């Protein structure tokens, strides 16, 4: 610091910028030596550092992709576990729904019990439960279970002529097949047997 007239010292400011802000040109240091270009060893070291940086970046990208896949897999598993739990609970309530249906068929579903039954059915519908199986539906072995079989001139294809027990689905998942009585057309060809050979 430089002494002042009043006894206080003034700070010394040194401008070490390599480019002169007024002219925009490179300043030459006070000793008169210009900076030397980087040694060849420095450029080799820079190449090695760039290779390491590229490798670390690729590692980070791989880790990021693995983490993203992991999160998606965990979310899928969480949804599957929830659906399985809901399906299990719904399966346990199917006999109750059967009892409610029988009571409705016999005219015994009235008063407060009717309101409770409607509320229960509405709640189960919100959870994704849907009933299927109507008299006259074409027989589909993937969703129907045939408990009785007959022939009838009134049908043109295998048809559910009576629904003995409703089937239930939760979304696309089959919880229980509909149990039906099936009728086939009378002119259906007889089943061939191996004895004809």
Automatic annotation (TrEMBL):
SUPFAM superfamilies: Coiled-coil domain of nucleotide exchange factor GrpE, Head domain of nucleotide exchange factor GrpE. Its main location: cytoplasm. Residues 1-34 have a biased composition (Basic and acidic residues). CDD domains: GrpE (cd00446). One of its GO terms (molecular function) is adenyl-nucleotide exchange factor activity. InterPro entries: GrpE, GrpE_CC, GrpE_head. Keywords: Chaperone, Coiled coil, Cytoplasm, Stress response. It is found in: Cytoplasm. One of its GO terms (cellular component) is cytoplasm. GO terms for biological process: protein folding. Residues 53-80 form a coiled coil. Residues 35-45 have a biased composition (Low complexity). Residues 1-49 are annotated as: Disordered. Participates actively in the response to hyperosmotic and heat shock by preventing the aggregation of stress-denatured proteins, in association with DnaK and GrpE. It is the nucleotide exchange factor for DnaK and may function as a thermosensor. Unfolded proteins bind initially to DnaJ; upon interaction with the DnaJ-bound protein, DnaK hydrolyzes its bound ATP, resulting in the formation of a stable complex. GrpE releases ADP from DnaK; ATP binding to DnaK triggers the release of the substrate protein, thus completing the reaction cycle. Homodimer. Belongs to the GrpE family. HAMAP family: GrpE. This is Protein GrpE. It comes from Nonomuraea cavernae. The lineage of its organism: Bacteria, Bacillati, Actinomycetota, Actinomycetes, Streptosporangiales.
